[in-house]
Amino acid sequence: MSHKEFPKTLIIVPNLNLPGGVANYYKTLRLNKEESINYFYISKAKPRSFVNTVVRLVINYIRFSFHLIKYRYKVVVVNPTLDPRSFHRDSIFVIIAHLLRKKTFIFFRGWLDPFEETIKSSRFKYFLFRISYARAGEYIVLGNIFKEKLIALGVPANAKFNIETTVADSSFLDQIDLDKKFESFKEEIKLLFLSRIVREKGIYIAIDAFTGFLKKFPDRKCSLVIAGDGPELSSVKSYVTEKQIPHIIFLGHVNGEGKKKLLLESHVLIFPSYSEGLPNTILEGMLYGMPIISRRTGGIPEIIANNINGFLTESYEPCVFTDFILKIGSDKILYQEIAQTNHQAALQRFTSEKVKERVLNLFRV
Length: 365
What we know:
CATH topology of the largest domain: Rossmann fold
Number of strands: 14
Helix content: 40-55%
Number of helices: 14
Strand order of the largest sheet: 2-1-3-5-7-8
Oligomer: single chain
Largest sheet: 6 strands, parallel
Structural class: alpha/beta
Distance between the termini: 12 Å
């Protein structure tokens, strides 16, 4: 594929050293290695005061405008989350791109349902949505559900929508040995929670579900690995200590060799998040042979089917997730069938190479 087939494209991204799905996505795909594509970074690693944040935003808007004009970019890609902070910040980038007549892709990555209702009930926020996001040239969404939601918010029904996925980092794929994983599953089931540590990702549900499993199946050797960092981490550790829950391992933020070891050795991904787009962690779990235990939210049900790829529920009750763990932990044949199915499905659709090829094709002239 020739570089000349792509217009000059500027993609707004956070600092790629920060944890989070958007940073991981663009760090994994490395789209900025293409000659005609550049990243525009808008986040710093360290938190700042309110005044410094406002000043930084204004400077970013000026820098962004300067880049578009000086380097004659034709396409802009904005990656908002439908939450209060991202919604307001990124709307200005979209408006600037409109004013400078740039083709704009809006790639909604995360979605908070309560904030969606806030937009509908607020005249100002609804107006801001209509003059910014609703006027984009093209949309990338993580499931048909988000297409329907955007149309309900005011995006024209005839707008161009591209249904895409996030990405499973395939850096360690050549080292996966499913037979070895199946053998180790017989000895110990290793549950994995891989995410930013905030309450809304379902971390306490995961811990309570694991505790329920230990009580119901005391003879089955089992551990829960919690990998990630975030504002709730200290409280989560205190919760585990106070309740004296055994066999929980905290790794903090993982990458490189640490992440490789984690993906190759873990058996089941548990991710009871309250509200999602389509998290990278689910696709990575699939690629590395893990059944998925999660909630029926966002684009997840368009990827995960019960008894085929794992188990989904609309419940927030830990006992429901405990029962899912029991089904997988007590049936090695079921585990192997789901692991094989997920690995093959992810190989076909979610590897870095597959996703990068599809995304680049969206930008082609």
